[in-house]
Amino acid sequence: METSMKAAYLPGNSTVDFKDVTIPQPGPGEVLIRMKASTICGSDIRAIYREHLGKGPEAYQNKIAGHEPCGQIVKCGSNTKRFKEGDRVVIYHISGCGVCNDCRRGYMISCTSPSRAAYGWQRDGGMAPYIVAEEKDCVLLPDELTYVDGAQIACGFGTVYEGLERIGVSGNDAVLVVGLGPVGLAALMLAKAMGANHLVGVDTVKERCDIAKNLGLANQTFVSGSETLQEVLNTTYQNQGFEKTVDCSGNTHGRQLCIRATRKWGKMVMIGEGGTVEFNPSPDIIHDQISIHGSWVTNIWRMEELVERLVRWGIHPEDLVTHRFSLNEADKAYELMNEGKCGKVAIVFDEELKG
Amino acid sequence: METSMKAAYLPGNSTVDFKDVTIPQPGPGEVLIRMKASTICGSDIRAIYREHLGKGPEAYQNKIAGHEPCGQIVKCGSNTKRFKEGDRVVIYHISGCGVCNDCRRGYMISCTSPSRAAYGWQRDGGMAPYIVAEEKDCVLLPDELTYVDGAQIACGFGTVYEGLERIGVSGNDAVLVVGLGPVGLAALMLAKAMGANHLVGVDTVKERCDIAKNLGLANQTFVSGSETLQEVLNTTYQNQGFEKTVDCSGNTHGRQLCIRATRKWGKMVMIGEGGTVEFNPSPDIIHDQISIHGSWVTNIWRMEELVERLVRWGIHPEDLVTHRFSLNEADKAYELMNEGKCGKVAIVFDEELKG
Amino acid sequence: METSMKAAYLPGNSTVDFKDVTIPQPGPGEVLIRMKASTICGSDIRAIYREHLGKGPEAYQNKIAGHEPCGQIVKCGSNTKRFKEGDRVVIYHISGCGVCNDCRRGYMISCTSPSRAAYGWQRDGGMAPYIVAEEKDCVLLPDELTYVDGAQIACGFGTVYEGLERIGVSGNDAVLVVGLGPVGLAALMLAKAMGANHLVGVDTVKERCDIAKNLGLANQTFVSGSETLQEVLNTTYQNQGFEKTVDCSGNTHGRQLCIRATRKWGKMVMIGEGGTVEFNPSPDIIHDQISIHGSWVTNIWRMEELVERLVRWGIHPEDLVTHRFSLNEADKAYELMNEGKCGKVAIVFDEELKG
Amino acid sequence: METSMKAAYLPGNSTVDFKDVTIPQPGPGEVLIRMKASTICGSDIRAIYREHLGKGPEAYQNKIAGHEPCGQIVKCGSNTKRFKEGDRVVIYHISGCGVCNDCRRGYMISCTSPSRAAYGWQRDGGMAPYIVAEEKDCVLLPDELTYVDGAQIACGFGTVYEGLERIGVSGNDAVLVVGLGPVGLAALMLAKAMGANHLVGVDTVKERCDIAKNLGLANQTFVSGSETLQEVLNTTYQNQGFEKTVDCSGNTHGRQLCIRATRKWGKMVMIGEGGTVEFNPSPDIIHDQISIHGSWVTNIWRMEELVERLVRWGIHPEDLVTHRFSLNEADKAYELMNEGKCGKVAIVFDEELKG
């Protein structure tokens, strides 16, 4: 086995740095994983790639980049309890202390310990041939799913699944998704699998609407404009609105659209990050008995549940990947993602390269 | 307009009596409905047809039979507020006082007033060309649904929808239904529409299993035997069981099967009436963190909701009807239902006769 | 029995008009009620008293004023099913059609029929010695409660109870109430009865805070200022915030305070009407997994439930009444309420005059 | 520091064995705890003390007894993340693998790994001056609570809190508890703290009823007999029954009593282990729209939540302890518990000896 590897770092000036580093070895409770797929998240671009803007949990500490890693265990450290060599695994993207109340609920994302470290931010991530992860952060990837599926679960799909579970989605619901980046597309894909009987997507960019349509993820899509609220309402039963709405835009207009398109007694969930929202409580939520739910990432046991569902549903997150690159081409991958004219972008290794 | 009509009564000796009666006129808050479809319920056979066994709310007071009526309003009494001549309507099968707490929740089934009267039991029902109903008991039937669809909603489908809503059914769920009479078949049909991703049915009678299979309502069916529990578990993800189970058998063995086939953290609902149930709480529900829900009929606003869903789903309860008769042949219809070699049996009028 | 009575109208110029009118007679399904207590709501002042500002459901049609009436039935019209002469009753303040979906859920407040009429707005209200109400709008008042208790239930307490039920309040919760008018005081009183283990109130007006303190409704109160958020947080377990927060202020700052004082995983409900709200979803609700619930008035069966609870809790809404007037002094009562230097203001009759 | 200690074992013939053993040392992720209180659970008597009856998770492997331990950390192994020397801690009584789905939800009780080990059953427990525990199994005990409080939380109170949370208890509820051993008494104590407005307890043994009464935990208690159902109903509002009922008896009659005393729309939870239950679904749960919930132990994050609540409520589980013994007298303690003429029995150390 080789002892060093080439790994990608993000210096914060819209380029990618490669460094030769020693392949790490797993300690007690840790596993060494051969990387197979490592996708790029919008937050990588926003907070690291262009500039190192993030603070606190988003502060990049010049570690190997990539917080959506998926691969195969090649070596176990001492004292591992469940996973073994050969297991295919998704990595929950935050390594928490494991013993605070948040970690005990499985929400390592909100770990309150100073020892909390995000892969690709405060500890080495997935943009290298190997990664050491804690066993407790691993989720088993069944054979029915590909590594590129798995990389998407690590962050985006997990976040979406949690948000949809928060408001509940079934065949009783028409669902509106506003903001059709990878997260919004995932919301359409999962809402459909959960049984939604009518799906509508909205984005400011026509190309994104087209992706949703072309992938068969929405019954109808709309490029947002001054008439969008009425247009989306017109697609619903007696124009009464959507039982469930999902904001993935992170924008006050997108959020207003969701709130106002929610049917009486319906529920709206906010997944998209950043910005503000302003609305008029009396007509918007009080008189229509509506609730608005904040939902952040997910917990690790629900991520396991999602993996099970994906197999049962026979659907593949990798369908949202429009571009694959080898690690050598990581600079091109980040550049493309930065420009935004793409769906999901993946760095892939080994068998996933042939995809 | 004619002034008298022929109406069917059940004397309680396994025959049908026809009498000529005056066509009634609607009083204040009432409507006169031209009957179009009137289906037969298992409870008609059990409590009235063979013998007048029922007590209290099930005591038959020699009224025109039939508590699953559906038709078209031909005349409104004074002081009606919503419905008008020409409206197609389903009748909620119990007329409650409207002002007790149960009625105010919409559950006229459990009206606590002495004035409570079930259509076809304590007031005239649907086995006649005309019926007078209270406006407050009517549910609008949209053009997308047939009168035979509507008659089924009046009792069976409403009951099933409530039960499924009680436990929640979505694409996250594998669903087991035990007991495949008309109610069990309805449970499969609605669970599928609500998004269930795997459906299994069990009955003691092979013919009923075949109906479910032939109508495409279940992925698999099993004639119950000593191995049934293991067989149904084997159809689920890693043999872990069903997230949701529905008893429509009213039998202790059927109920045990449901409880024991429910997955850890799952929910079971009892819809089937009568009999007892015995189980072992520690292994059966405590260690698996399972809940068991009793659910009785439905309320009138949820029945309206169901009507809306059926239209949105594009499904038809009338698919469960295997035999149609004119009112003249009501004796044959009850006889057939009594023998049980059939799906749902309907008495139909006018355009529904041509079905 | 006398045949005419003096009734109060609000001409919209900050005065009260008295007119002699015929005492009405109950029709079918109606009851005649001898008025005992009729309280003044903030909405009366806002939308009618100063000017006739309201539109749609808030349009005042020059009827006898007063939408919080409580009295005793003195005569029943034909066809009443439950209530009888001598019954003490609260009147749900909106008379709906009774047959639309909203009415069928008991939410006459959002009745969708053109026949919808609010007592004191589009049909005669409680500011007269007698009122005719529909039986279906009456809620039985047990002997343990006074008529002044009952008048408060008719609007404010019902609305508060619904809002608290929406978010659930128990001994597990610290509860913050922002806005300490009669509705906010009711929120404190009911949250305490539902088991809240720590109660904090905030208002911009010191006098209102003092009322809450003096009535023993809050553990602590704060006059809102620049440090209020931190001050209220400091009263909670490890400064982590309130499990449940209730906005009764209808103001963007009050609502922000509620949202930001809500603990991780907590719930906030908006009851206060009007205005806007602006906040930052990521830190305010997404990262803390918080939900915001709109809640409007209540349904009639929950109002019955509230009446039952008040008896079981042994608490009295009338404790919030600071001033009582006879109907002759109605002008003084409205004037006082308009100035706002008071708690709840009641017009009372007969035995309640002696209070 | 001494190097050996005297520890208690249960040979399975209704005696206690003492052995001198080496004081263990904490490994990575482990802590050494100085024992302060170690209470005896009914399951110790049932499955170990008299005979070694238990199988699987209940198989006693001749380890130091005691699965309700509470003490103070005196030494941390390497790689601990949260707890430190001097911390007072409760130990969750099952040490799970930490990485299966059940452990990830915090329910180590249902850990599916072969490495699962219960303290006092498959690994050394609390009946010795020192214990080594995994840091991940520790719950911080605040200064406001005593070690004897903490020992009770470890098993009984945690189990009860989970059960009550499953059905929800607030000031809206009258609560019936059947079976007044330590678990049932805990149910009364916690239901009251959660806000229950009326509490009734039932047991077959008068002495247990008296304890509940004398501790002020119940408004009324009843020694069960042929009239008990009617007697407990008579204590409720209009004899309508209890919104919430809790079975701690593990007995079919106790469970029937709970189910039949549950009010329409109410919820019943089964906590008591063993035995069977038989009932009549139609009258017992279907027509009354009742649900029955199985609840098993609790998860570790909810146990932390319970600790917080106890502090906020200012209540003390140790109030249920009727007898304290030093470790030397462990044989007397088990003997007393075996006879059953007592409340909770505790082995105490150091400052708790003075209690």
From TrEMBL, chains A, B, C, D:
InterPro entries: ADH-like_C (IPR013149), ADH-like_N (IPR013154), ER (IPR020843), GroES-like_sf (IPR011032), NAD(P)-bd_dom_sf (IPR036291), Zn_alcohol_dh (IPR050129)
Keyword field: Metal-binding, Oxidoreductase, Zinc
Any Pfam family matching the protein: ADH_zinc_N
CDD domains named among the record's database cross-references: THR_DH_like (cd08239)
Superkingdom of this protein's organism: Bacteria
Signal peptide boundaries: none
A GO molecular-function descriptor: oxidoreductase activity
Ranges for domain Enoyl reductase (ER): 12-347
Key word Oxidoreductase present: yes
Name of this protein: Threonine dehydrogenase
Organism, scientific name: Alkalitalea saponilacus
Taxonomy of the source species: Bacteria, Pseudomonadati, Bacteroidota, Bacteroidia, Marinilabiliales
